[in-house]
Model the fold of this input.
Amino acid sequence: MSTRDFIEKDYYAALGVAKDADAAAIKKAYRALARDLHPDKNPGNAAAEARFKDVSEAYDVLSDPKRRGEYDEARRLFGSGGFRPGGGGGGFPGGFPGAAGGNQPFDLGDLFNQGAGRAGGAGGAGGIGDLFGGLFGNAGGGGGGARSRSQAASGPARGQDVETEATLAFDEAVLGVTVPLRMQSPGSCATCHGSGAKPGTSPHTCPVCHGAGVTSRSQGAFAFSEPCRECRGSGSVVEDPCPTCKGSGITDQTRTITVRIPPGVKDGQRIRLVGKGAPGRRGGPAGDLFVVVHVSGSELFGRSGDDLTLEVPITFAEATLGTALTVPTLDANVSLRVPPGTASGRTFRVRGRGVQGKAKAGDLLVTVTVAVPTTLTPGAREAVEKLSAELVEDPRPRVTTAVRGGSPS
Done:
């Protein structure tokens, strides 16, 4: 992510959230947009794919508190007019912030210190220092900034992060599963092996930037570096492009990878798999793969945190006299003792038979409900009538007392 991106791109607008949005609001907005714009749902739609990449880039920055702070600071200092090439005061219209006029003397170190204080100490100082290093060359000092960007342009480049989705059955999400994921992402062109040149030919050093990938132009007291327009920042020029990748060195490739989903994942959870994203360029490391998990429902079980829930019907006789039940879990059956006089709706806890959490497994919560028969044989009806005549305990004493007392309805 370049400093220019920080200044020119409005990540809040990309996600459609306010600048003071909290982490939950940012995450909610990203999930909704990513679901609608995902390439799997918009095959062949270049506009949706580009928008998906913009949304993912914005979320990567705004979901990281440190990067969000650096982004906000960069936008505050430069995005609102704090720096414009060609203005007074060596590129700062009206002088540096806090100066009484455009020609006031200033100490560049003071500006760094102010930025460091706003960004939160030593970490902020590093962010602001990097920001200036990205915008300016080393004016009068041998072009250290340009050399830095030259190395970035011609050296190894990290691969892009890739996001995909996976739908799991309920038991797979609870117990963990290994799934194959088939996805499409940028990769090194197999025809030219990433050089961008037609087989049998090779790129040559850019005559404009001499392989640096950047050019510099003076703006008052500073040298402003920008990507070379001739080679587009690559440092080399391809005279005879590869027919497969059209000179880019990259093609969209379909690949299948095997991913281990850990036990206990929840619906909507985003899992990061380091190094499983798009391959790097020029020997750089691969990006990361983010898998958004969708979990199907279960006909038997529910889930509450790390606890599994299960509802089991029992008869009136079982509730009254007590019984031993055999109830299922996701991997085996367990026995449950129901004591005499159990009321409908009572919940029993079977410890350790829930979802495996980070520290320990959750429990299985079994709720028993008394099933009332809808049809009775003549013999069953006679038995119930005899039982009703024998029962002397009032099941609703408070209601009965209120009726006898003549309380108003």
